[in-house]
Amino acid sequence: MSARAFRIERGGLAGACLALAALAALAAAPAFAGSANLGLLSQIFAYIALASLWNLLAGFSGLVSVGQQAYVGLGGYSLFALTMFGGLHPLVAALLSGVLAVILSFPVAALLFRLRGAYFAIGSWVMAEVFRLIAAQIKPLGGGSGASLPTIIVTGMASSRQAREFMIYWSSLALVALVLGLTIWLLRSRWGLALRAIHFNETAADSCGIEITRVKFVVYAVAAFGTALAGALIFLQKLRISPDAAFNVNDWTAFVIFMTVIGGIGRIEGPVIGAIIFFALRETLSDLGPLYLLMLGAVAIVAMLKAPKGVWGYLVDKTGFEFAPLERRIVYSLNEGNNPAAPDSKGDRP
Amino acid sequence: MEWANSILQGVLVGGLYALFAAGLSLIFGVMRLVNIAHGDLIVLAAYLALVATQTLGVGPMTSLLLIAPLMAAIGYALQRFLLNQTLGGDLLPPLLVTFGLSVIIQNGLLEIFTANSRKLQAGDIEVATWAISDKLSIGALPALQFAVAVAVIGGLQWLFYRTAMGRAFRATSDDPQTAQLVGLDNRHVFALAMALSLAIVAIAGVFLAVRANFDPAIGPARLIFGFEAVIIGGLGNLWGTLAGGVILGVAQAIGAKIDPGWQLLAGHIAFLAVLAVRPEGFFPRVKH
């Protein structure tokens, strides 16, 4: 046999092209979409970012956090503090909020990583409560009742209302592109390989020389950065913040978890699909109030039990197509005829 | 003396936290399940007691005769038909399913009972106190609450180490496969554990509802108090959980004494401090 009967390819070219085309179309949206639609899209982008980062923690790293609202709120509050008392431009302040979240995430993780599994989940919730209670003690930011972003900061961002809307829209689009790009890059790198090894079997990963604690710290910090950035942009759009809104477990964690589970946990595309489904449902059913949330909870339970791979997982199983494949695949050259037992080109999933 | 009084009240509130924690600790011990809906189930029990007292005209404590078996039945069904499906090696399914359950209970209660806060009236016992000195007094209700917490934990301890049911719990906890080999039906044992857990939840719910106002949204905070009591006390040790509840109650009382806004924060900080210096808790019995 002279030539190899197979080659190893990474794939994802088609997906990357489609993603770039979508990005270009969405970047041009302010030219034709109305103000309300741009606002809605900005919200969807923020949620895709939040869900992708939660997925990075829970779906890829086994760090099931129900306390990511800590970083959403931290991002929002830092944005308000840095613009109101530091005189910074809101977008600069948003970036700094992310940096601040990274710095804080290390001591927080040092405490939380002492708890394992489900106890880590509730511990992260306690931490978010601590953040909320501290925010309620900050008198210059309105204490428990919260604060509005002063007009001078809002108009200082850009003079016209439309220009501000465009700015927030493009920032949110940049955020979602950054978060998706970052998670894909991270998961395709050595770090990603280490994460999956840890996720599948921590003891075996440890014995292979993977520094488990270090990998977890890095992933947790990356998630904190992106989540705080998303929080800053969300509250820049809302222009008003309060401890209960900023550290809300339903808005920033329950919804995010439901999106990810329904879309497909442990897959890059899952949170994107989940967020789109979530918003489609919300636009049609949100008049139902508590009943809507009740149904959402029920759908998430059924999804977890009956279709744990979610909508995207189901589609991948049916079609074999992935936008952003994370694994390398073995492609057999079937025309050589000497490997009759070769599996199909979908390759073996680990 | 004022401080002594605050701390004493904190100790007594600790009994309630231990009641929140006991059911949580029990099911984690038996089937390694962390029930995120635990706090919401406590609130559900409070509402069921409210309905019972209003429709039957009985007192809150009497209503427990109905509510505790009812919650136990709900627990058995919940475990048997839903939560058993989530048990296995993976961490996510039980966590997400109980999280979904929490959202369902909260919003279901909101839909039926609205967001208005309610309270159960227990009559004279609510205001009865024993004065130890002119500055130090013990309310009859907090004292009863603490005594019930001690009794529940003592009862659980007895059940775990002295009865056939407790033996079954310990056997499935230690090694579910072998337990099945010797004729235990794990699904049934787990369902019994959840039934017992929710019977305790009923007691906790009634005391919660008599002590202060409640509304559909307060469940998660009860879960967190119970969880903190379990971790401070040390996993797998029921008397440790009571101690954890007392430590949490005292920390909150001291925080509230300094500044009312610091009550909850002080409790959380005490928990984080324990996590920092003694992550296995004060009286651990199992490794987690």
What does this structure look like?
The complex is a heterodimer of chains A (350) and B (288). Chain A is mainly alpha-helical and 350 residues long. Chain A has one domain (34-283): ABC transporter involved in vitamin B12 uptake, BtuC (Orthogonal Bundle). Chain A is built from 15 helices and four strands. Chain A has helices spanning 13-27, 35-61, 69-84, 90-112, 117-135, 151-157, 161-188, 190-200, 202-207, 212-238, 243-246, 249-263, 269-285, 290-306, 310-319; strands at 6-9, 147-148, 240-241, 329-332. In chain A, the strands form two sheets. In chain A, strands 1-4 form a two-stranded antiparallel ribbon. Chain A has a two-stranded antiparallel sheet with strand order 2-3. In chain A, helix 3 packs antiparallel against helix 4 (90-112). The longest helix of chain A has 28 residues, at 161-188. Chain A is globular and about 70 Å long. The model of chain A is unreliable at 339-350 (pLDDT under 50). By secondary structure, chain B is mainly alpha-helical. Chain B has one domain: ABC transporter involved in vitamin B12 uptake, BtuC. Chain B is 73% helix and 2% strand. Chain B is built from eleven helices and two strands. Chain B has helices spanning 2-31, 38-56, 60-81, 92-113, 140-162, 164-174, 176-181, 186-211, 219-233, 238-258, 263-277, and strands at residues 129-131, 137-139. Chain B has a two-stranded antiparallel sheet. In chain B, strand 1 (129-131) and strand 2 form a beta hairpin. In chain B, helix 1 (2-31) packs antiparallel against helix 8. The longest helix of chain B has 30 residues, at 2-31. The radius of gyration of chain B is 19 Å and the shape is globular. Chain B starts with a helix and ends in an 11-residue tail after the last helix. The mean pLDDT of chain B is 91. The A-B interface holds A 58, 62, 64, 66, 111, 114-119, 121-123, 125-127, 129-130, 133-134, 136-137, 144, 249-250, 254, 257-258, 261, 265, 289-291, 293-294, 296-298, 300-301, 304-305, 308 and B 33-34, 36, 82, 85-86, 91-97, 99-104, 106-108, 110-111, 220-221, 223-224, 227-228, 231, 261-262, 264-265, 268-269, 271-272, 275-276, 279, 288.
